[in-house]
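Lab notebook, bench 4. The sequencing result for the construct came back, and we need a structural model before the next group meeting so we can plan mutations. Quick request posted to the team channel:

Model the 3D structure of this chain.
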Amino acid sequence: MIQLKSEREIRLMRRSGLAVWKAHQIAREMVRPGATTREIDAAIAEYFQSRGGTPLFLNYPNHEEGKPDFPAVTCMSKNEAVVHGIPDDTPLVEGDILSLDTGVRIGGWCGDAAYTYKVGEVDPPVQRLLDCTQAVLDLAFDLLHTKTRWSQIASTMARYVKEHGYSSVENFVGHGIGRNMHEDPQVPNFVSRSLRGRGDFRIEPGLVIAVEPMVNMGTKQVKLLRDHWTQVTKDGKPSAHFEHTIAITKNGPRRLTEAPRDDEWELLED
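Done. Here's the predicted structure in token form:
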């Protein structure tokens, strides 16, 4: 069941959203050739600890019984890795792309966001993939101003990706978010059979969702690596991932994981 949030609760969620934004600024400064994803993960873990936050990904249970919990504060997915990559000591190299997804709970409320970073300069086809994925997330945000049901937005997102020659990953979807990282509803970036029926939902004040398109240069198909977490494209071509936590307020949609406004910097300190 979808739990709509009050304006007060959305304001409280903004604190965790800003912490996630700050974590991404830490990553942005660190992503460069020679850096390791384990170093970046450690820096973000230290920042979350300084804010009294609880990382949402660390020790997250594997969906397969008996398999290891997720061992890090961030998902670090390089190049052909789509999602759930595990940080390690392999140095980043010029031309890599790194999809970094992370989340935190502060004061009982969650924030979650992802961004795909360039390591130095990337090839033009890879840049176009990043541009498309970022654009389709921005498109979804814009449509939240005018559309009344998520299926209308999801169909437009999928069409946009296809028209640009890419494929939308269908194995993973966005989600509702609040006191828990994963709440109802499921938020696909494509129109599934479920979304045509009971899985659809209204865009209304109090709705808070994590919208996270994952776009592949080639096939939409993915496969799981032996670490039991990392999902990679089946054809080995690059994948990009962008995500914001977005609240629908009485004044329209708002990204809770974007940069602070002039009157919000104090929320990063309290």
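The longest strand covers residues 97-106.
Will bring this to the meeting.
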